[in-house]
Specification:
The chain is of the alpha/beta class and 417 residues long. It is built from 9 helices and 17 strands. The chain has a 7-stranded mixed sheet. The protein has a 5-stranded parallel sheet with strand order 8-2-1-11-17. GO terms for molecular function: FAD binding; monooxygenase activity.
């Protein structure tokens, strides 16, 4: 019997690393190829809100061992309080009656896409465990998932495509070189995934909504007036469009001077304009724009921006995959995609990362049950992923369209990558 070849993984983001942890527990060989030079290459400070489904997927993969899910759970923040999740008027500081509005219908689905019906999340969706909202910074999450996989990562390897044969697959790098032969290639390298474009024959698309955002951090003292809760802050007084911010104030960390809380700001198309549309710019230029946008915000909220750690401010694009659903393409038994590479989402609803980790758990489970790669695994994974992935994208897009004026025309809107 031929020796088992490794699973090749493109990208070392959240979905890829959690998938790798699943392979590690199953003792299936794997190699991760990441274009960055190390895990600390870029700022990863903003927080992710974890849903019940997301936590269940992470727990399934990491397992009950002390250095598995219990260690991850201990690192998570648990936010409750009387508000839990609430909206604030940015200018008056008053609480909004509803923190989420009804989602408009998604576009008509494409003929080859599964049916996807967006649903409106209630506050109960945000209380994912123990009656609390569970959150963790992206950087902490990524570092925890990496544990045990360090020796399997090849840093500085940018995957730009692949070659396959009946007996294996090779990743191709930017310099034209190839990886060793693998049993399976999994593209998890985000919205610019070349693997996704190739395996789907261009059907997988990520749209640039035109909306932009800024991530930032500030000392815990800046958040004192807000108090515990997950807060959505909205400024709809501007003539050029709405601005929103989301932050998570955790009581256990409030008095720790060595901890910073993060916030995420977004604006409707045209409101936030990075210099030369350059998203590699971080630091003072991003911080100055955030301060300018919040200059007239209420004193209860304004310290988040006045006291920000300027060096960690960073721009970001708001993107979204095809709103009508994850398209179908001829299945390749040796190649598939996970996470943002197959279903990128807007920040509305906070379900992008939660859907990505579901991919990791599902594909890892199928491989574990089979003892490694087998014919039909990618087809089974894609069939199930298309259902929940399409629902999640439609949900996210519907909320963003209703709240922030984001619109996508699948025929004319610009794409990224």
């Amino acid at each position: 019997m031929a020796a088992q070849k490794p699973v090749l993984i493109a990208g070392a983001g959240l979905a890829s690393l959690l998938f790798a942890r699943s392979l590690l527990r199953s003792r299936i060989p794997f190699i991760i190829f990441e274009r960055d030079q190390s895990i600390a290459f870029r700022a990863q400070g903003y927080r992710l809100r974890l849903s019940t489904e997301g936590l269940d997927a992470i727990e399934e993969v990491l397992g009950p061992e002390p250095n598995g899910f219990p260690k991850f759970w201990d690192r998570c923040g648990k936010t409750g309080g009387s508000k839990g999740f609430a909206g604030l008027n940015a200018v008056t500081g008053e609480e909004l009656e509803e923190s989420t509005g009804p989602s408009p219908p998604a576009p008509e689905p494409a003929k080859d896409a599964p049916k996807a019906t967006p649903t409106q999340p209630g506050k109960e969706m945000l209380f994912s465990r123990e009656g609390k909202t569970i959150g963790i910074s992206r950087g902490d999450m990524r570092a925890l998932f990496l544990e045990g996989c360090e020796d399997h990562v090849r840093w500085g390897h940018h995957v730009t495509g692949y070659e396959s044969s009946p007996n294996g697959v090779w990743a191709i790098f930017r310099d034209g070189s190839k990886s060793e032969e693998g049993d399976l290639l999994v593209g998890g390298e985000g919205i610019y995934s070349k693997v996704a474009k190739q395996v789907s024959n261009g059907k997988l698309k990520t749209y640039d909504t035109g909306a932009r955002g800024i991530h930032g951090q500030a000392p815990t003292t800046a958040f004192k007036a807000l108090g515990e809760g997950v807060w959505r802050i909205l400024d709809d007084t501007r003539s050029d469009g709405k601005v929103f911010a989301i932050t998570n104030v955790r009581p256990d960390d409030m008095d720790d001077p060595d901890i910073q809380f993060g916030w995420t700001m977004g604006g409707q198309p045209g409101v936030i304009a990075p210099p030369n549309n350059d998203f590699s710019i971080i630091g003072k230029e991003a911080a100055d724009i955030a301060k300018s946008l919040t200059a007239n915000w209420h004193p209860r909220i304004k310290p988040l921006f006045d006291q920000m750690d300027e060096k960690n401010a960073a721009f970001w694009k708001i993107t979204c995959s095809t709103p009508s659903g994850v398209p179908e393409w001829p299945n390749d038994p040796r190649v598939t995609v996970i996470g943002d590479a197959v279903h990128s989402m807007t920040p509305a609803g906070g379900i992008g990362a939660n859907t990505a980790v579901r991919d990791s758990a599902l594909l890892g489970r199928l491989l574990a049950e089979a003892g490694g790669w087998k014919e039909g695994i990618t087809a089974a994974y894609e069939k199930e992923m298309r259902v929940y992935g399409s629902e999640a994208v439609a949900h996210s897009y519907g909320m963003a369209k209703g709240q922030f004026g984001v619109t996508i025309d699948e025929d004319t809107s610009p794409t990224v990558g």
